[in-house]
Amino acid sequence: MDLILQFLHNTGFGLADYRNLIMIVVGSFFVYLAIAKKYEPLLLLPIGFGVILGNIPFFKGFGIGIYEANSVLHYLYFGVTSGVYPSIIFLGLGAMTDFSFLLANPKLMLLGAAAQMGIFFTYLAALALGFSPHEASSVAIIGGADGPTSIFLTAKLAPHLIGPVAIAAYSYMALIPIIQPPIMRLLISKKEMLIRMPDLRQVSRRELVIFPVVGMILCTFLAPASIPLLGPFFFGNIMKESGVVDRLANTARNAIIDTATILVGLTVGASTQGDVFLNPKSVGIFALGAVAFSIATASGLLFAKFMNLFLKEKINPLLGAAGVSAVPGSAREVHMMGQKADPTNFLLMHAMACNSSGVIGSAICAGILWSFLMG
Amino acid sequence: MYGFEAISHHNGLAIAATGACIVFAGLATLSLIISQLHKLVALLDRPPKVIVEVVAEERPQETAGPDCPMDIDLTVARYLPLIEELEPEFDLSDLYVLAKKYHLPHPHLSIRCLLEAGRLQPLGDGIFRYAE
């Protein structure tokens, strides 16, 4: 009888804590959103399942949990804490990105820069709320709307916050269809939404091959700390555009990025153990993440309106919302909003240009914040 | 420590302002560079000067038939490299400009000769195509 009672005490039912149960509900909700609502399923499904997995109560000391040395999950989590997975994801992302839209209309790159302002506003807000500079940077980078970049910077500056920061970043990326449209409607008039973008010029292959080299040299000279992200990113892109290593480019944009995404999602999800994750700081991170994301969207929109004061050929200010680097969610949202105003207005390609600029911008921001605070 | 006190203690304003300026300056510079990239590429794509040399080599043939734009084979041989330099469908005036540029003799007569021989096929609106 004692043996049975001891066994029952050591099962998940016996060890269950209310915090684990809350997180299991949260994880199940993510899985529901991914499968039923199809909200960023590539991210939310592994993360949601990881949250459930990480919150199964277990007997501590057996090397099972993600925070226990020698556990399998701990080894897999090393890719997150060391910043390896984000670099690998950036490699695949580079091999997927088509810069021809950006090269055809380079002024859209400024919208990618403007949308990064959310990061710096949130940095100040987080400091004001009592976060340390390292923590504030990790929270602020959520405004870049770039999951891998958020994980990378947090791993370097505030590794104890990886779970909440990653979950917040990926959640807000998945919630773009809910967060961005109200801000667009608030700041952009119906007349401005109707602005049509000019046809894009044909970009030569030679331009596409030169760009990753020039882009990498300039960006990494400016912020050397962004090398782990932008190096693989531009390398992936030159593999794609050169056309001489199609096999490698295909592997980078399919097998490699998929593997890294699975491992990041699962381990980041599993890192949200209720006893570690559920605390006031996590709530603060979620709140500030929403602020960061909203300010980033608003900065992009307002800067696009500002640019129109000086441009002969006006740009559609909705494109500013695609300056956050949530690829391709925010570009899709901009396109859909433009189509609601005028079904014959196609903004997707232009919005993708802003999106790819946002990816570069947020990686530079991460590099700058890291280099400011690494001392 | 909270509020403005925390921001100033951690030098927050300076970090935020400097960071924002660096990102903006970086992307603006990159934007400027890529806006000029197609001009650089156009320079690299300029036609090789070999064509001029070919014309120079052909000049002695002029002495063999100095006023011979009516020799259709010779005219085709002279004008084909120029036509290949143009788009497949080109404006006749562009061909004339190229012929003048490379100092080919009797451009007017030669082009008319090509037209009459049916080697330049009119597509309308002053646009022509080379016909074999």
Task: Provide a descriptive summary of the structure in words.
The complex is a heterodimer of chains A (375) and B (132). By secondary structure, chain A is an all-alpha fold. Chain A contains 21 helices and no strands. Helices cover 72% and strands 0% of the residues of chain A. In chain A, α5 packs across α17 (246-270), α6 (84-96) packs across α17 (246-270) and α16 runs antiparallel to α17. The relative contact order of chain A is 0.19. Chain B is mainly α. Chain B has 2 domains: 3-44; 50-130, Orthogonal Bundle (Arc Repressor Mutant, subunit A), CATH 1.10.10. Helices cover 67% and strands 9% of the residues of chain B. Chain B is built from 6 helices and 3 strands; from the N terminus they run ααααβααββ. A 3-stranded antiparallel sheet of chain B has the order 1-3-2. Mean pLDDT of chain B is 80; it is low at 62-67.
Write the layout of secondary structure elements.
The complex is a heterodimer of chains A (375) and B (132).
Chain A: H1 2-10, H2 12-15, H3 18-35, H4 41-54, H5 72-81, H6 84-96, H7 100-104, H8 109-114, H9 117-128, H10 133-140, H11 147-157, H12 162-174, H13 176-187, H14 190-193, H15 205-222, H16 227-242, H17 246-270, H18 274-277, H19 280-308, H20 329-341, H21 348-373
Chain B: H1 3-9, H2 12-44, H3 50-64, H4 72-85, E1 89-91, H5 92-101, H6 107-116, E2 120-124, E3 127-130
